[in-house]
Design a protein that fits this description.
Layout lengths: L12 E2 L4 E2 L6 E2 L1 H5 L3 E2 L5 E2 L5 E3 L3 E3 L2 E3 L4 E12 L2 E7 L3 E5 L4 E3 L1
Antiparallel strand pairs: 1-2, 2-3, 4-5, 6-9, 6-12, 7-8, 9-10, 10-11
Keywords: Hydrolase
GO molecular function, one term: hydrolase activity
Family: Belongs to the YjdM family.
Length: 106
Amino acid sequence: MHKCPSCGSEYGYDDGVAYNCPECGHVWTDESLKEEEIKDAVGNVLTTGDDVTLIADVKLGKDTIKRGTKAKGIRILDDPHNGHDIDGKVDKFGSIYLKSSIVKKL
């Protein structure tokens, strides 16, 4: 038995190619578990290409990106920079690094 990384079920099983969860239908491999999941402020898993909204104001020098602003087409960073683990495009600011802890998936 293998614990499902999606729902936590203890009934995951190996079919010879991948692991399967009979409770939620999730399929995974040992290789897929090596990639660390990046989650937003409320626990949703973020993937490259997602759109998110900021849940807090962000200061950029003398400018401020207001709470509720969208960051489009995020990219999960392979090598986080000072805690910033995603990169997203924000209107009027361009591409900026963000922390997943201050965004919510749309």
